[in-house]
Amino acid sequence: MEVTKIPIGYKQTKLGIIPEEWKVDRIDNVFEFIRTNSLSRSKLNYDVKENSIYNIHYGDIHATFTKPILDLEEENRIPVINNDVDISKFSFLNEGDLIIADASEDYDGVGKAIELKNVKQKNLVAGLHTFALRDITNKTSLGYRTYIFKNAKVSNRLKTIATGSKVYGISKSNLSKFEIVFPPLPEQKAIAKILSTWDKAIETQTALIDKKKLYKKALMQKLLKPNPDSNREDWKEVRLGEVFNMFAGKDMDKSNFKKKKSNESIYPVYSNALTKRGLYGYYNSYQYERGNITVTARGSLGNAQPRFNKFNAIGRLLILIPKKKLDIVFVSEYINSRLNVFIESTGVPQLTAPQFKVYKIYLPDLKTQTKIANILSSADKEISILEQQLAKLKEQKKGLMQVLLTGKKRVKLEN
Question: What's the confidence (pLDDT) of residue 225?
Answer without folding.
Answer: 83
